[in-house]
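Why run this: before we spend reagent on co-expression, it is cheaper to look at a predicted model of the complex and decide which construct boundaries make sense. The entries below are exactly what would go into the expression plan.
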Amino acid sequence: MSVGIEAIHPYLGQAAIDVRDLFAGRGLSLDRFDNLMMRRKSVALPCEDPVTHAVNAARPLVSRMDPSEVERIELVIAATESGLDFGKALSTYVHHHLGLPRSCRVFEVKHACYGGVAALQMAAALVASNASPGAKALVVATDVAGALEAPLRREMVEKGEGYHEPSSGTGAVAMVIGDRPDVLELDAGAHGFHSFEVMDTCRPVDNHERGDADLSLLTYLDCLEGSFADYARRVDGADYVESFDYLAFHTPFAGMVKGAHRRMMRRQRPGSTPDQIDADFERRIAPSLRYCVEVGNVYSATVFLALCGVLAHESSGKERRVGLFGYGSGCSSEFWSGVIGARSHRRFVELEVERALERRRALSIAEYDRLLDLNCGVGFGVENGSVDVEAFADLYDQQVRGRGLLVLRRIEGFHRVYEWS
Amino acid sequence: LSLEHERDRVRNVLRAKVREVLGELPAERIAAAASLKDLGANSVDRVEIAALAMEDLDLDFPLHELGDVGTIDGLVDELARRLTVTRRGAES
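The model came back. Tokens follow.
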């Protein structure tokens, strides 16, 4: 039985800031900017949150499905580290606004940036169990960068911190999981894990991302090596260089992935020259960074954004094996693999993701700060509030109005009220 | 081999790796720096320098165990200590 991703669609946001402008605006050192390998990052509008991102990622997939197929969606999992309530799962809003059947298991999962992988694997396991033949699952990984209030932003700049801000993006990736995996057929049983307790990065309080960048990068490297070693233990003949046509990793920022690949090549292929490693990087990994360098880290969705880059790039229609690595701080990690095939590229490009990327509105640093201020008013824990569209009218009119996107309108007694734009 | 000898060896390896990653820097600037950050290394550079030094010294332990090491002296001490422990392990 084949199991995997039948369709995939990312939501990349409506606005973006050039990362170089953000470095300049925050007074960050540009000395070693280039090896971070970041261009832009997406920024949420005040009418957007993890729910609207998730629905706007999933809707083009659901609307393309035959009603009889939609009826077979028996599981909805939303993965996020930007939850909106300790109890009420944001998957309930996603399920509702997509008009999915009531005969459906609906829940939310969290494990930092690993949450999306956890959701995918649980959904794939349901399909593979064949307990309900023909059943499908909708998995959406969705996240929003924490929006610090203005005084805390100033404090961050004064302390010389804030190097994580330029890579913290916003967006979602939706996937339909089933037994007709046109986009990515998962290699059954091909998984490796590496997990242990570590305090590298966290979100201990709403909107406040804390962490130790060096520790997190070191842990990421340990996990990549450890989870691949575990994969190789389970999969006969697995080889880091020979087994995978492409690699798609969780991408906190692209420079991290490049560094991690260098380390893996040095360890797996001692004696590789820097030129050989660079050439291998360009051939097997650079395609996965296409959207990551434009959108930034989208946390639980990032490894799937990396997969989208591979789908956009590989247009031959031939079977290609992709090695995937998911990492979530704290930490949990997984190396797994799948095969893209004849229909993968076509199914992806018909959703016009490139157009959505180009359509994003470029923000100045002043506009960006203004959006952060507005975003602080409608986040976690707000009992009553409303989104004042007039406060960002030009952006709303240009990017959202009349486009059939789900938007947040108000919050009434903690209940979030959404509408179609 | 004394711990002091290991420290010198580690310091030389680290200086070489600093140059490999950050490009040529004046020796006195490297000598005077308290941390890799002082030399302009960002997080990717810092992790790369530490990983390359470990590989050069044939040290194999989880990289994240270096997570608390913020200064160059601290890094030198920790790598030298690991070398001593590894050598003792090999001799026993």
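DSSP finds 15 helices and 17 strands in chain A. The interface with chain B takes residues 29, 31-32, 35-36, 163, 198, 200, 212-215, 217-219, 221-222, 255-256, 259, 262-263, 266-267 of chain A (CB under 8 Å). Bring this page to Monday's planning discussion.
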